Amino acid sequence: MGLTVAAPKGGNYTPPPAGNHLARCYRIIDLGTQKVEWKGQIKAQKQLQVVWELHGEDADGNPMIMEDGRPLVASRKFTASLGDKAKLKEFLVSWRGRAFTDDELMGFSLQNILDKWCMINITHTQKGDKTYANVTGVSAVPAAIKKAGLPEGINTCVMFDIDNPDMELFDTFAPLFALLLVGPCMPPAKPGIGVGRQKYQCHKSTELNQIFIFKVKVSQEL
Fold first, then answer.
1. 137 has which bridge partners?
2. Mean pLDDT across the stretch 43-63?
3. Strand blocks (E) in the chain
4. Per-residue pLDDT tens for 167-191?
5. Any idea where the domains of the chain sit in the sequence?
6. What is the predicted pLDDT for the residue at 166?
7. Of 45, 160, 193, 218, which is most buried with the most CB atoms under 10 A?
8. Residue 179: which H helix or E strand, with range?
9. What is the per-residue DSSP string for 17-59?
10. What is the pTM assigned to this prediction?
C-alpha cells in the first residue's frame, strides 16, 4: 500500500459543510491509550480516529474540495470498544444496517470499514470565531446513489497500528496530532521520530494495556 497520505500543512482550515454527505473511509488511526475526563474523573481509554473524505457539492452547488483539489475531510475519535454504550458500536451498527453477531463482538476488524462508502451527518459548533465540524451520525449509502454509481476514491487508504507502527506514515502526521500518540499515557520519549523540531519515539504501554491491532474487543468502558 502506497503511503502518500499527508495531513494538511498549515493554511486556512475549511470545515466541511453541515448536512448529510456521501463519504468514504480512507484512514483509521490507533491513538493508543489516552487520558480523558469523564464525569469529573480522569480515565485511561484506548482510542482511535476514523477519517472520511467527502464527495459531492455543498448547499450552494460548490464542490467540497480543498484549495489543492483534494476532497474535504471529516473525522471523529472513538473509544475502542464495542460495549453496549459505545459510540463506535452505535456508528457501526447504523453504518452496516444490522446488529453485531456474538462472534463479531468477540473481535471485529476495522479493516472491514476501510475504503467503504457511507453517508455521514455533520453539524457545526461555533467557539469564538472558529467553526468546528462534528460527525454526529453515519448510515448506509442509499440504493439510488449506489445505482447511479459511486465516485472514485481519492486518498490512499491507510491504517496506523500503534503496536506495530509504520514510521513512514507516522512522519506524515501533523506535529500536534503526532504528539497524541506519544503523549502523557506513554513512557518517556526517546530520540527517534522527527516531530517538528523535536524527536519522539513510539512506545507500547504495558501498564495501561496498550496492545491494540485494530480488533475491537468487547469491553464495558463506555
1. 121
2. 92
3. 19-38, 41-55, 73-79, 108-109, 117-127, 130-139, 158-160, 193-195, 198-200, 215-216
4. 888 888 776 676 666 654 444 444 4
5. 19-216
6. 83
7. 160
8. helix 175-181
9. PSEEEEEEEEEEEEEEEEEEEETTEEEEEEEEEEEEEEESB-T
10. 0.76
